[in-house]
Structures are given as C-alpha cells and as structure tokens.
Amino acid sequence: MKRLFFTLAAVLFLSSPLISEDKESPGYKVGDRAADFKLENVDGKTISLSDYKEAKAFVVIFTCNHCPYSKMYEERIKKLSSKYAGKQVPVIAINPNTAARNDESLQAMKVRAEQKEFNFPYLADADQSVTNMYGATRTPQVFVLDKNMNVQYIGAIDNNSSSAKRATSFYVEDAVDALLEGKKPTVSFTKAIGCSVKRPK
Amino acid sequence: MNRLFFIFFLLASQTMLEGQSLPENKVPFLSFGEFEPLLHRQSDTTYVLNFWATWCGPCVRELPHFEKLGKEMAGRKVKIILVSLDFEEQIQSRLLPFLKRKKIKSEVKVLSTEGQQDWIDRVDPSWSGAIPATIIYRNNTKRVFYERAFNYSELKSTVLTFLEQQ
Prior knowledge:
Chain A has 201 residues and is of the alpha+beta class. Helices cover 33% and strands 17% of the residues of chain A. In chain B, 43% of the residues lie in helices and 20% in strands.
C-alpha cells in the first residue's frame, strides 16, 4: 500500500510540471507585476509607465489600425481616456503589429491617430518585446494595472464589440473604478473575439 | 400532363441540388446554443472546424488549405466546416460575395458573437478569442485545438493522425 502511494506520488510529481507547462500561456496573469516599457509614441516622444508619477491606475490597451474589432473600439477608448484623464488614470494604446504590416507602421499609426483624433498615446511596439512580455494575443486586449503596476484585469473593454449601446458589462471601467475605490475588480479576466497579433515574416 | 409535371419536377430538383452544391447561396446564422452540438458529434467522422472571418487576413490566406483538404479527403470520414465570425450585418454584403468569388466549396456556418465572453471557453479553455483558430476532433477519443494558422502539410498531417488511429 505504501509502495502504491509512493508510486502514485511519483507519477503525480513527474507528470504535474509537464501538465502545467503545457497549459501555461506566456505573459502576465492577474496578480503579476508588470514591467515598465519605453516605446515611441505617434508624436515622436517616448513614453513609459514611470512617466506618470501620480497615476492611480493604468489602462494599457493592445490595439492596431486595421483590425475591425480595434476600429469598433476606437471611440470607446477615446471615451475611457477622457473619462479618466482627470482621475490620474492614463489610457495607453500599444500597437503590437507595427513591424508586421505596412498599414501598421508608425507612419500609418500617425495618420490613424490624427484622422480619428486619438486623445491617448498610441505607441509602436516595433520589436513586439512589450507584447510578448505582457502576453497579448489579440487586438484589442486590455491590461488594467494598479498604481504599483500589478496586473488587476486582463481582457475585453466591454461585452459587446459591435455596439457600445448594446453592451451591458463594462469590464475596464468597473475594474478601474474598483481600483480607485481601493478594491479589487470583481471581474479580473475576460475573453473576446479579436484579431490575432501579427508576427513579422 | 403527368409527363410535363415530371419534367417540371426534374427541373425543380435539379435547381435544388445545385442550390445545395453552391454554399454561397445561403449560410446559416447560428447562436452558440445552436452551434455547440457541432463541437461534440459522437460519430466516427473527424470534424475540422475552422474559426475565421473575411476581415481576418491570416484566416483568408489559410482558407485554401481547408478547401484543398476537403478535396483530398473526399470519400473519407472527414467533415470540414468553416465557422465564420463575420458580423451579422455583413453576411449579405461581404461574406456571401466572398464565398462566391473564392468559389468556396466547404460548408460554411456563421456563428453569432453574442455572448462570446461566455462561450469562448466552451469551444476550448485555451482559446484567447483570437482568430484564426481550428479545432479537430473525433467523438470522445481525440481532440486538438490550435489558436494559429496552418500551412497545408501541417494541417493534412494533423488530420491524418485522426484517420490512422481508426
């Protein structure tokens, strides 16, 4: 019996790292501390999280020019940015596809940001290092960080991509509002259909 | 008169048959509840479900592989279904013309993105929601899920592993 137990324990011990490695996707999970970055904005300046000394939280959004889901959320990202501008919660967009497509180049991002009057920084992750570090897989995908840069929410902006009016859950706003009240977000992870992050050839 | 009726019947059935062989004429628009049984068919057929959309570049580039697979696997127990996540309001204006232009022969179903936050996990827990994504399964015995695009040889060899086990 003892031997059986031992064998069983050994099997579990040997197999468990394999299983967890298999299921583990790279990148941040809720609770992880996010590293800072330094990326070029469409205005030519570079931006880091540490530039925002007084920030009470951060909304980091991986998004891009061409993805229809990204486009559908542009106005909502602008609204988020203006809503939280006075509350020391910067909304920062990062384009993971800059190097992969011509229509995602920094120049194309500048055009998009001007056309759509972005009121938030739109940064080019030219070598995808930040995208990989965060583990962003699609656009748009949001990471809400608390003031200590711990990841508190990963996922969609709300629960209706095609219509802001028909959305009934506002995940990012709820997460930020909770953090501003010193609470943990009730919903800390959501999934959504989106465009895959494009890898350079 | 009988004969006329018979000819008419022949013509009618001919058109119906043609209608069936041209999937671009009509595609079903399904809620997740209506779609879900397709993820769990209990038969000896291997199901290849590809999640895609006309607005997704890598998906569109990958489609010919599924079409080719369909041709090569004709007569074998393989069912390919292209699960479109196109927007409902673009089915007529965009999806159907696309299917016609590309002469898509595989079966196409449009899955409503309504309730996606709840159903993405029910397709596969490892799916983040990005497309293209493909699920291949045969009843309860084997199931694989990929959140990425395939090249043809990868796709074919993966499907063959399902058939060889039979």
